[in-house]
Amino acid sequence: MRQVLILAAAAAAAAGQSMPDRGPLRVLSSNPRYFTDNSGKAIYLTGTHTWSNFQDSGHRSSVGDPPPVFDYDRYLNFLESHHHNFFRLWRWESPRWNDEDPVGLKHSAPHPWMRTGPGLAMDGKPKFDLTRFNPEYLQRMRERILAARGRGMYVSVMLFEGWEAQFTDAWICHPYNGSNNINQVDADTNHDGRGLEYYTLQQNPMGRRVLELQRAYVRQVIDTVNDLDNVLYEICNEAAAYSTDWQFDMIRFVHEYEAGKGRRHPVGMTAEYPGGVNRELLSSPADWVSPNNGSAPDTYLENPPANFSGKVVVSDTDHLCGHTCGDSIWVWKSFIRGLNVLFMETLEPAPTWQDSARVAMGQTKRFAETINLAEMTPHDALASTQYCLAQPGAEYLVFQPGIRGEFTVNLSGAPGAFTAVWFEVNEGKTLPGGTVQGGARRSFRTPFPGPGVLHLKLAGAAR
Prior knowledge:
alpha/beta; TIM Barrel; Immunoglobulin-like; 2 domains; eight-stranded parallel beta sheet; 9 helices; 26% strand
């Protein structure tokens, strides 16, 4: 049975724009909130991701085995039609588990290792050989990343996935459960039937053997995609706080292994759940992080922090609320506060607020390509709205999140004339705003109802 993606009418592909060969991403030293490539420009990452975009998975359906086939080309069309350029390539570790959303037995395929037997695993299929990699899995990974590159998109390869082991019975059929492989490997060394030790640095002979097999898998993934410039890595999705040392070790391992390869790619650490704290992410050796929501007043969902955290931050609704939040206001607030943005996608009929987030990510990406983002950082005190991305004296992008209203922008330290352009977020319309003289605090009033953006650029400056 083929999975049906219910998409907007605009899902027909726009003209494809293949990614130029400018080398892999690296942190932009002059403005380390963003990545760059050999172009030297700031690259803002934004897009939607969904659970079945790599392995076919029954996570959101009650269809049996084999799981529904995911229409990857149509997914890329959907991203392209919304002007997105980034997504997470999801991984599932267990071939079978029971879940509650919706209730039923779920399956996923393919997996990294060959199922050779002898003997049958707990799902009734041949046992895994953890020393033999599955060419179908690796070929699919490479082909999907190449297809994304052809659309100008970056892909974060999820190396491990820790949510299902905690919140479902996935360990029963997990390849590293001793009942499911021919290699006498069982990561569940405390024999509690959960296998969460798999995401820790176990100081015992079996734990060291598990770690070496994990590293062998990571090496194989890197060998498969290292030559592709549109790759990032994510160590693990939502393993709990017990995984910190193991994740730090894996980040260092990826860095060390790629140091001897042709290219080096950014390595990310995403929110640990439950029990994770953002300071662990920020102190990690990762190049980029996806935090949890944090605590008031500066939550990544309602009032994204403007201070530089020391890392490239990708704010992802998956770690803020799952797939039950995220709208255009959140996207614009996050962008103006210097964050990259990801949105957890169900690819099902969506409420208006969800559609607005999809559209707003494309809007912010277009602005990122227009403004001199490499020189712009949050300067909240310059605007009474408290949302201002600026290169003071040269360029300002001010977000008004509320309804039509008056606000001020402090241009007292910015002599000269500025060209003003308004952008209406809800309708996606641009309106000319005339010329504004700098040198003082100036008042503005949005010329339309609803949220809006004011772009001020020093007159005569190159675009």
